[in-house]
Amino acid sequence: MANSLYVKKLTRWNAEGEPESVEFVRGVNTMFGEPNAGKTVWMSMLDYVLGDTGNVADAFGNQQTSDGTLLMDKYTRITAELEVGDEALLLERDWTEPGSKTKILVGENVSVGQGDFSSFFLQKLGLPLLHFPKGNPYAERSWPELSWRMLFRHMYRQERFWSDIADRQPEAEQFAAICMFLGIADRVFPQQLGDIVGRRKLLVRMEAERDQFETVLDRVAKELSRADDPPEFVTQESVAASIAELESHLEELATRRESAVQAVAEEQHAPAPDEELLARRAACLAKQEGLQIELRRVNSRLAEFAEIRSATESQMSRLQRALVAGELLKPVRASHCPACNQEVTPATGEDVCYLCHQNVSAEEHGAQRVELEIRRLQTDLDEEDSVISTLRSDAAGVERELRQASEELAEHNSQLAALRKAYTALQTSDIALIDAERGRTEEQIASHRRILASLDTKADILSRIDELTGEIAGLQGELDALGQEIEYATLTSAFEEEMHNFFNKLNETRPGRWNWGRVDFSLNARGFGFRVGQAKWTSLGATAKVYFLFAYHYALLALAARGECECPGLLIIDFPPELADVDIEDKENYLAQPFVDLAETNPDSIQVVFSGRSFQNLEGANPIPMGHVWR
Hints:
It contains 15 helices and 14 strands. Helix 9 runs antiparallel to helix 12, helix 10 (275-329) packs antiparallel against helix 11 (366-424) and helix 13 (488-509) packs across helix 15. 55% of the residues lie in helices and 12% in strands. The chain folds into three domains: 5-184 and 486-625, Rossmann fold; 197-269 and 430-476, no CATH class; 275-332 and 343-424, Helix Hairpins. The protein starts with a strand and ends in a 6-residue tail after the last strand. By secondary structure, the chain is an alpha/beta fold. It has helices at 39-49, 56-60, 71-74, 114-125, 148-152, 171-181, 185-188, 191-224, 236-268, 275-329, 366-424, 429-484, 488-509, 542-561, 589-601, and strands spanning 5-14, 19-23, 27-32, 75-84, 87-94, 103-106, 110-113, 156-157, 519-524, 527-532, 535-536, 570-574, 607-612, 622-625.
């Protein structure tokens, strides 16, 4: 249940610091007077102090006083004394102080920015913060927050706006506001709905990525295939078959090359390859690479221990300097107590403190502790020197073996040079063509293997699609369960009944005043709509629209008074300038009387502020006459 909102007092200060106030009561308040008496100005000021996000010039426009002074220049600030539930709240807008034009002062010390006021005030009212889709929920834009100002447009009707439920408000905002007032917004727009939309967006992208991935793979595989009629679609089986075909072709090329080389060698009497020499060279090369790795490892360890030894040596050097300094300062004795500055009597003895005369064990002497630490560090240095010596010896041995291996490799290369020269002469154009074809085939095999690996990526995409589909199904189940909890028929029936109650009260003042038929209010998870008879309510004429909109506001207040609605119970209406059926002085009473009756039966639940030309003889309302005419 939302907290009620009650406006107690509205005050404005002029440039001379003089206040002008209007006080309101619970129930119905009627501000009345001649045109230009300032009624609409007071309404605009109340609107502005309740979190208007525009500037003061937009709020008051070019409205002037009788002497031509702009209202925004005549007045400097506005305050509103409110009661929100059981809490008293003071709001202030000051457009003259630097930095205050875009802020609302709450109480005496708290300043709230225009952008933050909505969440602050909704929290005070006990209404939840929620986001709702505006238009296509799957569009890339984020869902806007249902703000206090969006709701307030259903609670404050300006004199010039009588053509829609909330004029100049998109239907998606109207739907969200109505759901909030009826107490179902958190179930119509739950977190699960936002999560479903987000996951469905991602699912669409993943499916598009899968389709594009498959299309690219199909095209690339066709271009790489050697078959006259390659497979239409890429599958693991088709790629494996292509690899097997390419490997078979590669073996065939190797056989052809060996036969071609053998034929040329026999024709030119080329020497036979020395297989034993090639094997020795390969073994020597492998040994050289192993020794290089071992040398890098030993040198790394050597550098590490050299750094450790340097740190140990530096620490021992500092301790040695401290020991020397201690010996130099030892004869210097304190002659006075550091606490009371009195002269002390020196104590004698090695085991007694010179100053406080307390016993001191031999282990507690500073010089002995330092000497002990120096001896420990010297032991560490000796051990580190031993390790460094061993590592240097190992490095030297590895370097000797590496030189020997390099010399052996150079000898093997020299022996192979003559043989390589002889075989280079065996190269013919046929062998060169075979080698080129072998290179292309090997590259095709590598490309097909990459395609085969890419199919694993496709499997990851498919797995993610399945995961998203499962998450969406689970969230949809939760969303459906929330939707089943909403009693749409009961809510709309109660709303329709209160609208019909208002029409009945109109017809009591003059039979047939409302003769356009019953109102049908439709509401579901996708939207809302009002029909009158068989037509949309927007097809009504001007006067009928005014009656309809009064009935809409009456229904919200009636449900709020019964605790069946999350509306804060405040309604502000600036009457339209002209109504079709003019009854002279009390022409507006018949529209206000149903609200007076409602307030009498629910005196503490609702507050209504009407602004019009005259409300004479309207009993039960708090009259607020506006006698001054601005121009």
